[in-house]
Amino acid sequence: MTSKPTPLRAAFLTALLAMPVAQAVAAPQGFDPRQMTEQLATMSGMMSVIAVECRLHTQAEVAAMRDEQREASVARGVENASFDRLYAEGVERGRAHLAGVPADEKARTCAEARQQLEQLQSQGGMLR
Known about the structure:
Elements: H1 7-26, H2 33-53, H3 59-75, H4 80-99, H5 103-122
Helix pairs in contact: 1-2, 2-3, 2-4, 3-4
């Protein structure tokens, strides 16, 4: 599945690409790649709320990205049910946060997300 670069996808991919490096550096200290993957699931749920709220993605696009991330997470040892629970927790956190944010701050958040997307696109399609 090929799609345009997005802030949400960028965060997923950046984190997934950084994992092997982080694992190599932190392995002697007992680094747990599954724990990092679980944290990404929660963060992704939170970011999906911003992506929809800022109209950067439709619900269907966010669902497709969630499914892609679930597959990658399962490959790293996270169970489907755990991923779904963590992602849902992130969605709830994102909704709770945005519910208390003034309109001007929401507008700034959306503008920053759009700017990140434009920067990624200007880098020559660094991400698909």
